[in-house]
């Protein structure tokens, strides 16, 4: 049995203007995430991938379909029932700085969810030190403010906060897209190490197929609200079957100018045809 099961998910947003019809963003998407697995959800801006993550987190209500977590329907949960899932399902957002309270120390930021879930101040402080060590931050980070850290370090803080309540699933919404390439690699390696240590599962959302290939066990490709290809990460990212997936693969730059020029020409030809 999968940890997360999404079945025929549909999400609509209100249309613009008076009496405008709702606009359907997701058109019956189905996918699942197993225990301790990373499923990469990839697509261009506007494909609906972030909407899937928001629906799993309870930030968007489905218009149809099912979202089941640990065999429990969670798509329509609200209020206290939804908050009860906070220790099970966590999130890491794209911009680590805007997701961290700039006026709170790192220690207070990480202790807050622990105290909310009943930990004493002393136990929370001890857990915070363990979390900082787990994500590779120095012990003195506990008394510092978010602005004192680099982008990569702040993302490590955000990961530590997500890990604090001991979740089984973390939704990673473009968690490395705001970072430089070397820092991206460090953060992704950290996520892989944490998964090995804790068995946490990731729904990893990204527009970058190369990033998804690095971290995922399986890949799901979303195009304009429809799932167009799924499969083993190595297969989908090396020999894609759908033209849209191939376009995403060709969009990734390479160091060789001749190879890059060839990829650019092939992508131009693909763009002339509908996926």
Describe the SSE topology:
Elements (H helix, E strand, L loop, with lengths): L3 E10 L9 E11 L4 E5 L6 H8 L7 E6 L2 E2 L5 H5 L5 E4 L13 H11 L4 H14 L16 H13 L5 E5 L7 H18 L2 E6 L2 H7 L2 E6 L2 E7 H4 L6 H9 L5 H15 L4
Parallel strand pairs: 3-8, 3-9, 6-7, 7-8
Antiparallel strand pairs: 1-2, 1-4, 4-5, 9-10
Would you kindly provide a written description of the structure presented here, covering whatever features stand out?
The chain has one domain: Rossmann fold, CATH 3.40.50. α3 packs across α4 (121-134), α4 (121-134) crosses α5 and α9 packs antiparallel against α10. Helix content is 38%, strand content 23%. It contains ten helices and ten strands. A six-stranded mixed beta sheet has the order 6-7-8-3-9-10, sandwiched between helices. It is of the alpha/beta class. The relative contact order is 0.15.
Short key terms for the protein model shown above:
275 residues; alpha/beta; Rossmann fold; four-stranded antiparallel sheet; 10 helices; 10 strands; 38% helix
Q: What kind of sheet is the major sheet?
A: 6 strands, mixed
In the predicted model, the low-confidence regions spanning at least 5 consecutive residues are none
- Compute the CA-based radius of gyration: 20 Å
Q: What's the tally of helices?
A: 10
Shape: globular
CATH superfamily caption: P-loop containing nucleotide triphosphate hydrolases
Per DSSP E runs of 2 or more residues, the count of β-strands stands at: 10
Q: Report the span from N to C terminus.
A: 33 Å
Count of discrete domains? 1
Structural class: alpha/beta
Reported by name, the CATH topology is Rossmann fold
* Main CATH class: Alpha Beta
């Amino acid at each position: 049995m999968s940890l997360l099961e999404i079945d025929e998910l549909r999400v609509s947003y209100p249309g613009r203007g008076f009496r405008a019809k709702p606009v359907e963003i997701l058109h019956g998407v189905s996918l699942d995430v197993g225990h301790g697995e990373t499923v990469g959800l990839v697509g261009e801006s506007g494909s609906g991938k972030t909407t899937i993550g928001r629906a799993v987190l309870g930030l968007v209500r489905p218009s149809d379909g099912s979202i089941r977590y640990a065999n429990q329907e969670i798509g329509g949960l609200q209020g206290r029932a939804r908050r009860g899932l906070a220790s099970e399902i966590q999130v890491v957002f794209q911009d680590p700085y805007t997701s961290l309270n700039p006026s709170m120390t790192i220690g207070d930021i990480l202790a807050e969810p622990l105290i909310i879930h009943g930990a004493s101040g002393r136990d929370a402080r001890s857990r915070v030190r363990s979390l900082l060590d787990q994500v590779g931050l120095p012990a003195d980070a506990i008394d510092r403010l978010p602005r004192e850290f680099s982008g990569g370090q702040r993302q490590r803080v955000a990961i530590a906060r997500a890990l604090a309540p001991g979740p089984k699933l973390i939704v990673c919404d473009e968690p490395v897209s705001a970072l430089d390439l070397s820092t991206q690699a460090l953060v992704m390696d950290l996520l892989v190490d944490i998964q090995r240590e804790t068995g946490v599962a990731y729904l990893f959302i990204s527009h970058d197929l190369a990033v998804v290939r690095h971290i995922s066990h399986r890949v799901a490709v979303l195009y304009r609200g429809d799932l167009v290809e799924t499969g083993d990460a190595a297969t989908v990212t090396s020999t894609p079957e759908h033209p849209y997936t191939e376009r995403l693969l060709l969009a990734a730059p390479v160091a060789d100018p001749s190879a890059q020029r060839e990829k650019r020409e092939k992508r131009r030809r693909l763009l002339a045809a509908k996926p």
